[in-house]
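User: I need a structural model of Dinitrogenase iron-molybdenum cofactor biosynthesis domain-containing protein from Desulfohalobium retbaense for a docking pre-check later this week. Nothing fancy, just the predicted structure tokens so I can convert them on my end. Input:
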Amino acid sequence: MKICLAIYQSRLAALFDNATGLQVYTCESDNTICPAGDISLPFGDPTLRVSALSSCGANILLCGAISGCTTRMIQEHGINVFGWLRGDISTVLEAWREDRLETLLMPGCRGFRCCRRFRGPHTTQ
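Assistant: Understood. Predicted structure tokens for Dinitrogenase iron-molybdenum cofactor biosynthesis domain-containing protein:
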């Protein structure tokens, strides 16, 4: 499984639209997370950003705030989106591995249930 984090410097970007790049990781069956590369994201057009995300073979996107329209575009490529998260990269990866992403939700977010039925970060829709 490939997990992508939409980043700005050493943290998740507060907004997916402002992310400067993606950090790609593979998640092995024993829950080991290994770096698999970095991708620079084009600024502006969301369709170019979605294409960059899709071209790396991502299964999961972990990001900050993201619009419903962009989320749907990403999901149409078969990528599961976990948005409205905050934190530095190591904290986010650890929360993923421990199945506790909900502890990193941005203030004011009512949780994954407000946007869709939550089935846990390790399952796909």
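Before docking, keep this in mind: The longest strand covers residues 33-40.
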